[in-house]
């Protein structure tokens, strides 16, 4: 049954013809039609919808085929019809605004539906299907592949009778070395550390985020299989220890690919299924990077739509699947700002190399979240005011830069870059111009042009802003000064431009030294 607002004349109609919903304007040919005005029901036999207008029905509810409209809906619609045009517009406007608010990011309405309907349904379904009844004996733990502050990550296999023959060695330990497991049975197991402060809470959060995303945006992250608590102690398990389990999504992360010299070409056939033909290599590289970036940003958009900010976006947390999908992993630092999950105002969980300058996902003065329903109700306002999602997009920007600039791929180079970009006030354009001399390089490396010019001479190159903003010169001059002069100069460098006459007057720099320092100031100030 559907309600349709009738444009002219002003009639609100509900039409139902047996089982199918129909439109007032369609060339319906019902028989045995009854329609209900505000006051009475009129039965008629007609062959066309439009015939109702001929019967002077300009307002009322229409029932076709003898079906009855539920009384609450009928009374609601009748009340709506009794409103003046102005009141109807007001009603619609108010309803529209409420709808916009409830559906605006991070989605109060869909979040409530998820929490009160989908989550319990998932729990019930998983319990019935046995998905939530994972046990210690279901897994064989293999090699350790990573370790964070709160967990240790292992590869492993889900024991399935058809796939792996489990044998016991002389000491009674399980062994599964004789049969290769099928890739679909490979899993990743994360053991939550025991006795480390915050580890247990971290495990709970990571589990919660994985379940939430498995409902809201499953394609963005690794397939979460569930968790279990070890029920015995042996060489692999400690009784009472919590384990989280994911499907094995791929044996390398973006960080692993980026470490190789031939990145990004090493991802070409993974991303595109084949080697791109007829495209020159630099363009091919650009296409691969663009594809990776598109996937990262698309996944971020999806998780942000649910109110989740990952807070640890970096190449090591992006698994590349065999099908060329980039999947987000490691949601231990994530926060759901729809309900304030894993949000502690003054706590920042971050990798300093990928973290934005603001350090916090919300301003530090943001209070601790209230109970979930209240937090959820106010979350669109919080989101609009603070745009917490931009925390992740900064990290994604760093990933893009590392992919595009090979010299930024090593951890040391990235640290250096972070210092430089801080000095440039996080102005990447300034960084590329002053620090890297990009503009100068483009003017030095170019064709001569028709009159054998078109490239900078050494003299003009020295006048280029790259050299004028010479932090190197400031450092060189400073290194030759006595300590007392150094302190004064440091102090002056700290002040704004226009105070340079001071060293000239009082500490007898040569004019040239003063000018050099003045020029250097822009580049030196740390
Ligand atoms: N679903 C998966 N499929 C394949 N590999 C995975 C999967 N999940 C994790 N890994 C691998 O395990 C490594 C560690 O995982 P994860 O980052 O979640 O653990 P962690 O303990 O938080 O480590 P860290 O804090 O160092 O990031 C990843 O870098 C990746 O190589």
From TrEMBL:
<dbReference type="InterPro" id="IPR008271">
    <property type="entry name" value="Ser/Thr_kinase_AS"/>
</dbReference>
<dbReference type="Pfam" id="PF00069">
    <property type="entry name" value="Pkinase"/>
</dbReference>
<protein>
    <submittedName>
        <fullName>Serine/Threonine kinase domain protein</fullName>
    </submittedName>
</protein>
<feature type="domain" description="Protein kinase">
    <location>
        <begin position="139"/>
        <end position="467"/>
    </location>
</feature>
<keyword id="KW-0418">Kinase</keyword>
<dbReference type="GO" id="GO:0004672">
    <property type="term" value="F:protein kinase activity"/>
</dbReference>
<dbReference type="InterPro" id="IPR000719">
    <property type="entry name" value="Prot_kinase_dom"/>
</dbReference>
<dbReference type="GO" id="GO:0005524">
    <property type="term" value="F:ATP binding"/>
</dbReference>
<keyword id="KW-0808">Transferase</keyword>
<dbReference type="InterPro" id="IPR011009">
    <property type="entry name" value="Kinase-like_dom_sf"/>
</dbReference>
């Amino acid at each position: 049954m559907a309600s349709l607002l009738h444009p002219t004349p002003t009639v609100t109609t509900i039409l139902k013809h047996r089982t199918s919903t129909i439109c007032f304007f369609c060339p319906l040919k019902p028989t045995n039609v009854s329609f209900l005005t505000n006051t009475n029901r009129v039965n008629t036999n007609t062959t066309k919808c439009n015939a109702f207008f001929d019967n002077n029905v300009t307002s009322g509810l229409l029932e076709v085929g003898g079906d009855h409209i539920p009384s609450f809906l009928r009374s609601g619609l009748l009340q709506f019809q009794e409103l003046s045009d102005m009141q109807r517009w007001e009603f619609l406007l108010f309803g529209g605004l409420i709808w916009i608010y409830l559906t605006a990011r991070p989605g109060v309405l869909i979040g409530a539906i998820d929490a009160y309907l989908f989550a319990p349904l998932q729990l019930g379904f998983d319990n019935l299907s046995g998905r939530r009844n994972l046990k210690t004996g279901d897994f064989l733990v293999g090699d350790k592949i990573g370790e964070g502050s709160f967990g240790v990550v292992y590869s492993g296999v889900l024991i399935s009778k058809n796939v792996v023959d489990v044998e016991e060695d002389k000491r009674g330990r399980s062994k599964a070395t004789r049969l290769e497991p099928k890739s679909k049975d490979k899993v990743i197991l994360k053991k939550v550390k025991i006795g480390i402060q915050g580890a247990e809470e971290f495990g709970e959060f990571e589990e919660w985020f994985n379940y939430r995303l498995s409902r809201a945006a499953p394609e963005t992250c690794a397939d979460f299989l569930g968790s279990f608590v070890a029920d015995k102690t042996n060489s692999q398990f400690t009784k009472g220890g919590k384990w989280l389990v994911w499907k094995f999504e791929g044996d390398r992360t973006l960080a692993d690919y980026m470490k190789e010299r031939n990145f990004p070409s090493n991802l070409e056939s993974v991303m595109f299924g084949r080697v791109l033909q007829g495209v020159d290599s630099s363009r091919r590289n650009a296409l691969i990077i663009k594809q990776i970036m598109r996937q990262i940003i698309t996944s971020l958009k999806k998780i942000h739509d649910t109110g989740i900010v990952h807070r640890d976006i970096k190449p090591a947390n992006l698994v590349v699947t065999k099908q060329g999908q980039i999947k987000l992993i490691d949601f231990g630092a994530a926060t759901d700002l729809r309900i304030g999950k894993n949000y502690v105002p003054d706590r920042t969980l971050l990798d300093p190399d990928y973290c934005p300058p603001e350090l916090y996902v919300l301003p530090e003065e943001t209070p601790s979240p209230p109970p979930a329903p209240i937090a959820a109700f106010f979350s669109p306002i919080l989101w609009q005011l603070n745009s917490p999602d931009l925390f992740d997009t900064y990290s994604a920007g760093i990933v893009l830069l590392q992919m595009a600039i090979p010299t930024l791929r090593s951890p040391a180079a990235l640290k250096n870059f972070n210092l430089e970009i801080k000095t440039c006030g996080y102005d990447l354009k300034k960084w590329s111009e002053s620090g890297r001399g990009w503009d100068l390089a483009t003017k030095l490396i170019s064709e001569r042009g028709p009159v054998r010019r078109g490239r900078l001479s050494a003299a003009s190159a020295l006048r280029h802003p790259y050299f004028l903003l010479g932090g190197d010169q400031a450092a060189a001059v400073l290194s030759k000064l006595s300590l007392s002069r150094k302190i004064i100069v440091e102090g002056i460098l700290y002040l704004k431009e226009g105070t340079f006459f001071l060293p000239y007057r009082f500490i007898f720099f040569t004019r040239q030294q003063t000018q050099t320092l003045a020029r250097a100031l822009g580049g030196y100030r740390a």
